[in-house]
Design a protein that fits this description.
alpha/beta; single chain; four-stranded mixed sheet; four-stranded parallel sheet
């Protein structure tokens, strides 16, 4: 969303290490590993060698029983000390993109970041930044943390939030709303098991409900895995409301996106916000970039307010 974010251009982001469980990626340069199956992101750029090696990370609960084959994972894999690799590679921060449902795995990587004196960016709905205990750990360590659960550049959550807020601001009483999502990448295959989805549903639902000051029947979350969609995600949103005269007003919307790059561009901004925080000696949760770029931040605010917070942070007018 910013070609230049403060003093940092997109080209200033450098990968120094990566962690995986996929046998077809481990040991390779990151530039080669990103094309290995089951990755299906659209290729929009050639990627030169990075010099960043892909290491075998801990499996923990990061691989659901039904995902071992899809992820080319092996329980007998010899894993590395994540904190040690972060130290050796002189990493500024660790970005967590584990599969949805990886609660223990996310905590393992968050602790590794703390042990390595690294900032942490949590892109999945297993809560770290929005949990006071973890937030305090990063604050005490003098490290910034951002999260939780990345919003896409223009994705289902941000569109749903904008429409719901529009209804509310224009005096339409929302009776009920739903958001159904289908896709064909491994994110959706992983989420076919409902017990992986508890925090995902919480994150997406609270992101919408937090803008409306009354309760309403809501159903938001992944709905189905459709393999031939590959990295395309299709979202269907319905809002049922009552307008003037207590008469029905119904909104139906459909959104089709390339799923992976839709969130990737946002993370590029988050990474540079965290770097600015490191430069300024700011620790703990970054409220501006977290509220603007994540579904489950420590503090939910309207998106226009969060956007202003980010611009104020870049300009040095807001301390976090």
């Amino acid at each position: 969303m910013h070609a230049r974010f403060g003093d940092y251009h997109i080209r200033d982001v450098k990968f120094v290490a990566a962690f995986e469980v996929n046998q077809q990626k481990i040991g390779k340069d990151l530039a080669d590993a990103i094309w290995a199956p089951p990755n299906c992101c659209a290729k929009f750029s050639d990627v030169p060698k990075t010099g960043a090696k892909v290491y075998a990370g801990p499996i923990s609960d990061g691989v659901a029983p039904h995902m071992f084959e899809a992820f080319h994972a092996d329980k007998s894999i010899e894993t590395v000390d994540v904190a040690q690799i972060l130290k050796e590679s002189d990493a500024d921060m660790l970005v967590n993109y584990l599969p949805v449902g990886s609660a223990k795995g996310t905590q393992i990587y968050a602790q590794a970041a703390l042990d390595a004196d690294c900032a942490f960016v949590n892109c999945i709905p297993e809560f770290i930044c929005s949990v006071p205990v973890w937030a305090k750990k990063f604050e005490k360590a003098g490290l910034p943390v951002a999260g939780d659960d990345i919003k896409s550049q223009v994705g289902a959550t941000i569109v749903h939030r904008v429409l719901a807020r529009l209804f509310y601001d224009r005096g339409v009483k929302i009776d009920s709303t739903y958001q159904l999502n289908i896709g064909g990448n491994t994110d959706f295959l992983n989420m076919t098991v409902e017990n992986r989805l508890k925090t995902k549903r919480v994150s997406k639902t609270q992101a919408v409900q937090s803008l409306i000051p009354y309760d309403m029947p809501t159903r938001i979350g992944p709905s189905d895995y459709v393999p031939f969609l590959e990295d395309h995600k299709v979202c269907y949103i319905r809002i049922n409301g009552k307008a003037f005269g207590d008469l029905p007003l119904v909104m139906d919307a459909k959104l089709l996106v390339n799923d992976s790059p839709n969130s990737g561009g946002v993370v590029i901004d988050v990474v540079r916000a965290v770097k600015i925080a490191l430069d300024r000696g700011i620790s703990g949760p970054l409220l501006g970039i977290s509220s603007y770029s994540f579904k489950h931040p420590p503090q939910q605010v309207p998106d226009d307010q969060a956007h202003q917070w980010v611009e104020d942070f870049i300009a040095g007018k807001k301390d976090r």
